[in-house]
Write a structure and sequence with these properties.
249 residues, Thrombin, subunit H, six-stranded antiparallel barrel, single chain, alpha+beta, six-stranded antiparallel beta barrel, 3 domains
């Protein structure tokens, strides 16, 4: 049986030494420029692609971190809103349906807040809408997902109120007025009424009692008139509200 001749270690060493000598001698010449350029170009492309991949991954992770931070901030804010609502000095028997504000639409005849809470969530016409213990308005119509709320300052709004001195009257909206102001009307002349009096719902119109409405700014009627009237600053500007609660019970 014939066997191939063995390659001696000395022959291999001599061959490697010869190749090394050729490479060393040709390094200063242009013989290997083209192979060298090919190898360097591909090595550089691999390195660039690897670097771009790392940078893209870092950017993706950074964007994810920012998104998570925003989500945490939103959840924290919502949690604080719910906590304040639960801590509001209202009857423990009340039930609330949360909803966020979609828009505020003001015309010469009405001022409506649209909120993301409708009949599918248990909202129905006539329910009061609050932020903590401050009344925002009353639901006038609903769809499965959206409720339309007539604000306290709306020209079409009328709410039975009382002062902290127990003077009673009717809070009405102002025609084309500021959404943060209203007018107190129908207060008897013999009842005490002065600036800085606190107004709350009296419950005579079916709304929950003692929801905060606002404060008397100044008296605008004269003593010879049958009723006292006053300018009222509402306790909450509806333009600054982002989340509200519908009292369902």
């Amino acid at each position: 049986m014939n066997r191939p001749p063995a390659v001696h270690a000395g022959q291999i060493a001599l061959l490697l030494l010869l190749i090394t000598g050729i490479l060393w001698w040709g390094d200063g010449k242009s013989w290997f420029d083209r192979p060298r350029a090919f190898i360097e170009e591909n090595m550089l492309r691999v390195r660039v692609n690897h670097t771009e991949t790392i940078e893209e991954e870092r950017a993706r992770l950074s964007a994810k971190v920012v998104g998570l931070e925003q989500e945490i901030a939103t959840l924290t804010d919502e949690n604080n809103v719910f906590r304040r609502q639960l801590q509001a000095p209202l009857s423990p028997e009340m039930s609330f349906i949360p909803g966020y504000v979609i828009s505020l639409e003001k015309t010469s005849d009405d001022t409506i807040m649209r909120i993301a809470a409708g009949s599918d969530h248990g909202v129905s016409e006539g329910m009061p809408v609050v932020s903590e213990s401050v009344i925002i308005g009353k639901v006038i119509s609903v769809t499965p997902r959206i409720a339309h709320v007539r604000l306290v300052a709306s020209p079409g709004s009328k709410i039975a109120v009382k002062t902290d001195k127990n003077a009673r009257g009717l809070l009405v909206g102002i025609q084309e007025g500021d959404v943060s102001r209203a007018v107190l009307d129908r207060v008897l002349q013999n009842e005490p009424l002065a600036a800085n009096d606190l107004l709350k719902t009296s419950g005579e119109d079916g709304l929950p009692v003692d929801l905060i409405v606002g404060t008397v700014d100044h008296i605008i009627s004269e003593s010879r008139e049958p009723f006292q009237r006053a300018d009222v600053v509402l306790s909450l500007d509806p333009r600054e509200v982002r989340r509200v609660f519908v009292i369902s019970k």
